[in-house]
Design a protein that fits this description.
alpha+beta; Kinesin; three-stranded antiparallel sheet; 16 helices; 40% helix; disordered C terminus; binds adenosine-5'-triphosphate
Length: 626
């Protein structure tokens, strides 16, 4: 019952959740960038769901041991989470996967920094699914043979080239055969579960891995040019990202009791340089990847972030980023991604835990389109394309080392995350506190056999990696909530003890005097109790007293700490206000820079709000990051 973790009272640094970003405007506002989307988001969902009924199922699945099985729910689970976990079972049933197997959420008070563990520190495996693309025109024209078989139960059988050698068998959570549609991938890959968890405050990542031309970009964003052309979001060709956006907004609409703030960013790692796809600038100046001591993770400094109030804003972010990313042609793919891209949507949820307490969770969904591994002989890469291929292969190799180390439970030593920008940014998704879905993309043909086997091995290794998903919550909120639970638990316990005591007393008194006793023992009745019961009674009272006294002392400590914390925050606030005033006065004096007319409320949430200057000049210019 001890109230621990007073370190949570450390004043919250905004870097923990959002760090300041450069408030440079996009070329156009999200809404202006977006195409006029005629239908509503719900219609897309309705359309795709309607279509689902008619289609035969192309996705096969294997329920891996332990995956997708709901464990017992703790009575201490967050109310909102309890609801979500309950729903999970249902959604798991539908999506037949165990993307980060469903777990009960109990609040573990071993809270780290700004986060609260919600699964009691249980580990979770990366969910791995495989998608096989159909034969392309070139392969059909050259009469290429398919060498993969799908016997079901999430298995892929690879025929080998060597006569007499046994075929290789791999198994995964779900296998999408070549005829599987984009909607099948949304429904059965487990990405819906990831989105539900992102809304609850978990950090989630879906990434596509595979050789060049195997269908990674197709899986995430559809055929080349689809998004950039501003195609209606109801096109059946749209990939996982657009479909996920629609589902995300649907989830948000289902929760009117919560207030949500969505912020999106989109970057690429091109030749080991991080480029902001929403604000690349003519020079495509690279951004720095830094380590945050507070959140204990890497983040990109000055990354541009866009507030997305509407579904259209998310589409606009995707469209803008897709236009700006590096694409090139080589012998194996006319529209090959020459960079790794990372699209991130942060989901801040404010919910009322009860009448007096509002707490915020900070979830995230990342979509990572890795550039494909390339055999430069096969792709005929030269010059710039060759340099790109070398950088791609190098960073994928580091990713491979990290995956190999992480999957080897026994030998787990140093994980070389720092060896590439990609692994730095994926570190948390791979083995930190995130929930991760890997979509391994492969080609079905004999000519790609060695790359296919490599990808399948990679995927099998990734399946063994475990992470510890946690909900990101403001430290103060987490503490208040945990204190409240603590007090509730104490009260229940005391109530229970009192009840137990009365029952026993009633029974004894009845046997003595044969008359009804009052619920509370009257002082004069105490004399009638036998010595042994009296001793028990006194002992129980003493125990209760001790517990309540401890609680009392701890609550006083907590209150003092809160006061100190508040004092620090208000001092920081004053300092910032002073700084703002100084900046303002400099701006007013300057003939070149116009002064900002107003700054947003300097209260606690101000630091997390970025408003697009192009849409509202009167708003604040404080930015954030990841
Ligand atoms: N499941 C699929 N159904 C139909 N076409 C597909 C499928 N998967 C891939 N394709 C097509 O194959 C081509 C190559 O796919 P894509 O560009 O997505 O590969 P990639 O793995 O992203 O390659 P790279 O690593 O070079 O970027 C594209 O024209 C794409 O539309």
């Amino acid at each position: 019952m001890a109230l621990t973790n007073l370190q949570l009272f450390r004043p919250m640094n905004s870097n923990m959740v959002y760090t300041h970003r450069q408030a440079t405007p996009m070329r156009a506002t999200p809404s202006a960038l977006s195409r006029s989307l005629s239908k509503s988001a719900e219609t897309l969902v309705a359309t795709t769901r309607g279509g689902k009924e008619l289609r035969s199922r192309k996705a096969r699945s294997t329920e891996q041991p332990g995956a997708g099985l709901a464990k017992g729910t703790s009575s201490l689970a967050l109310p909102a989470l309890g609801k979500a976990w309950g729903r999970d079972d249902d959604s798991l049933g539908r999506s037949r996967n165990g993307s980060g197997s469903s777990r009960a959420g109990s609040v573990d008070r071993s809270t780290r920094g700004s986060s609260t563990t919600l699964n009691g520190g249980d580990e979770d495996n990366i969910n791995v699914v495989v998608r096989i693309r159909p034969l392309n025109e070139k392969e059909k024209a050259t009469g290429e043979r398919e060498i993969l078989e799908f016997p079901g139960k999430g298995q892929v059988i690879c025929q080998t080239m060597t006569p007499g050698q046994k075929p290789k068998v791999f198994s995964y959570n779900v296998v999408f055969e070549p005829a599987a549609t984009q909607e099948d991938v949304l429904e059965y890959s487990g990405v819906k579960r990831l989105l539900e968890m992102a809304v609850e405050g978990f950090s989630c990542t879906a990434f596509c891995y595979g050789q060049t031309g195997s269908g990674k970009t197709h899986t995430l964003t559809g055929p080349p040019g689809l998004v950039e052309r501003g195609t209606s979001p109801y096109s059946p060709e749209h990939g996982l990202v657009v479909r996920s956006f629609v589902y995300l907004f649907q989830l948000i609409q289902e929760r009117p009791e919560c207030h949500f703030i969505l912020k999106a960013s989109f970057l690429e790692i091109y030749n080991e340089k991080v480029i902001d796809l929403l604000n690349p600038g003519s020079a495509r100046k690279p951004l720095q990847v830094r380590w945050s001591k507070e959140s204990r993770s890497f983040y990109v400094e000055n990354l541009f972030t866009v507030d997305c109030e509407q579904l259209d804003d998310l589409f606009a972010v995707l469209e803008e980023g897709m236009r700006n990313r590096a694409v090139g042609a080589h012998a194996m793919n006319a529209h090959s991604s020459r960079s790794h891209t990372l699209l991130s949507v942060r989901v801040r949820r404010d919910l009322r835990a009860d009448a007096a307490i509002t707490c915020s969770t900070h979830g995230k969904i990342n979509f990572v389109d890795l550039a494909g591994s390339e055999m430069t002989k096969k792709t005929n890469s030269t010059g710039k394309t060759l340099e790109e291929a070398n950088n791609i292969n190098r960073s994928l190799m580091v990713l491979g080392y990290c995956i190999a180390q992480l999957s080897d439970g026994k030998k787990r030593g140093h994980i070389p995350y720092r060896d590439s920008k990609l692994t730095k940014l994926l570190a948390d998704s791979l083995a930190g506190n995130g929930v991760t879905l890997m979509i391994a993309c492969i080609a079905p043909t004999r000519s790609n056999l060695s790359e296919t086997i490599n990808t399948l091995r990679y995927a099998s290794r990734a399946k063994k990696i475990k992470s510890k998903p946690i909900v990101k919550m403001d430290a103060r909120d987490a503490l208040i909530l945990s204190l409240k639970r603590e007090v509730e638990a104490l009260q229940t316990e005391n109530e229970h003890l009192r009840t137990a005591l009365h029952v026993q007393t009633d029974f004894n008194l009845d046997s003595y005097s044969n008359r009804r006793t009052p619920p509370q023992i009257e002082p004069n009745k105490l004399y009638q109790l036998p010595q042994s019961e009296l001793v028990d009674l006194v002992q129980l009272h003493m125990q209760e007293n001790t517990a309540l006294r401890t609680e009392n002392t701890e609550l006083f400590n907590v209150r003092d700490q809160l006061l100190r914390d508040q004092e620090l925050l208000s001092r920081e606030n004053e300092r910032l206000l002073k700084k703002l005033e100084d900046v303002n006065s400099v701006c007013i004096r300057s003939p070149i820079i116009p002064a900002r007319p107003t700054y947003s409320d300097s209260g606690s949430t101000g630091a997390n709000i970025w408003t697009n200057p192009a849409t509202s000049t009167a708003n604040s210019n404080v930015s954030d990051s990841g």
